[in-house]
Specification:
Blueprint lengths: L12 E7 L8 E8 L9 E9 L11 E7 L5 E7 L5 E6 L7 H44 L6 H20 L5 H28 L1
Antiparallel strand pairs: 1-4, 2-3, 4-5, 5-6
Helix pairs in contact: 1-2, 1-3, 2-3
Protein name: Heat shock protein 70
Family: Belongs to the heat shock protein 70 family.
GO molecular function: ATP binding; ATP-dependent protein folding chaperone
Length: about 200
C-alpha cells in the first residue's frame, strides 16, 4: 500500500503517482483507495476503486500507469488512471460517504502505535518474500535472454533451483521472514556464479 496524501494536508490538493503491472501480459488493473494510517489496507477505511482495462500486454513492470488524486475544498476525491502507452484512462469520483467520524479517526490514530510493531514485522516479512520472488523471475528472464551463452548444465541447474524455490514459495507465503532470507541466500549461491559469468562474457565482448 502506498501513502499518497498524508493526514493534515491543506486542500485543495492534486498528487500524481506512477504504478505498473504485477504479472506478465496483464491487461487490466484495479486501484483501491483507502483512508487511514494503518500499514495494511484491510485495516483502513475503503473509499472506492478505479478500474483500468485495455492495457497493452507486456512483461510485468513495463506498462506505465499514471494515477492522479485530486481532493477539492469539500473533501471530494477525484481519481484518474491512465496508461501512457495506450492512452486509455478512467475517472472515478469518491465522495466522503462512509468516511469515519471524528471519534473513529481519534481511535484509529491511537491504534497506530499499538499495531506499529506488529505491522513492521509483517512488512519486513513481505518485503523479503517479494524480494525472493522478484529475484527468481529476474534470474529466469536473464537466462532466457542469454540462453545461447549459458552452458546447458549451468542453465539447467539454475532453472531447476528457481523452479524448486518458486514451488516452495507458492505453498509457504506465510512463512517467517527468516525462511525467505535463507531461501534467497541459497538460491543466490547457485545462480550468482552463472549470472556473473554471463556479465563477464558480455563485458569482454
Amino acid at each position: 500500500m502506498n501513502v499518497i496524501i498524508r493526514r493534515g494536508t491543506a486542500l485543495p490538493i492534486k498528487v500524481s503517482s506512477n504504478f505498473t503491472t504485477s504479472t506478465d501480459n496483464q491487461t487490466a488493473v484495479t486501484i483501491q483507495v483507502f483512508e487511514g494510517e494503518r500499514a495494511w489496507a484491510k485495516d483502513n477505511n475503503f473509499l472506492g476503486q478505479v478500474e483500468l482495462s485495455g492495457i497493452d500486454p507486456a512483461p510485468k513492470g513495463i506498462p506505465q500507469i499514471t494515477v492522479n488524486f485530486q481532493v477539492d475544498y469539500n473533501g471530494i476525491l477525484y481519481v484518474t488512471a491512465q496508461d501512457k502507452n495506450s492512452a486509455k484512462g478512467n475517472l472515478t469520483v469518491l465522495t466522503n460517504k462512509g468516511r469515519p467520524t471524528a471519534d473513529d479517526i481519534h481511535r484509529m490514530i491511537l491504534e497506530i502505535d499499538v499495531f506499529k510493531m506488529v505491522e513492521e514485522k509483517q512488512r519486513q516479512r513481505l518485503l523479503l518474500m517479494n524480494k525472493l520472488e522478484t529475484y527468481i523471475f529476474d534470474v529466469k528472464r536473464f537466462i532466457e535472454i542469454h540462453d545461447d551463452q549459458v552452458r546447458v548444465e549451468d542453465r539447467t541447474r539454475a532453472k531447476k533451483a528457481c523452479e524448486k524455490v518458486l514451488i516452495w514459495l507458492e505453498s509457504n507465503r506465510h512463512a517467517p521472514k527468516e525462511d525467505f532470507q535463507q531461501k534467497l541466500v541459497s538460491l543466490k549461491a547457485i545462480c550468482s556464479p552463472v549470472i556473473s559469468q554471463l556479465i563477464g562474457c558480455s563485458s569482454s565482448s
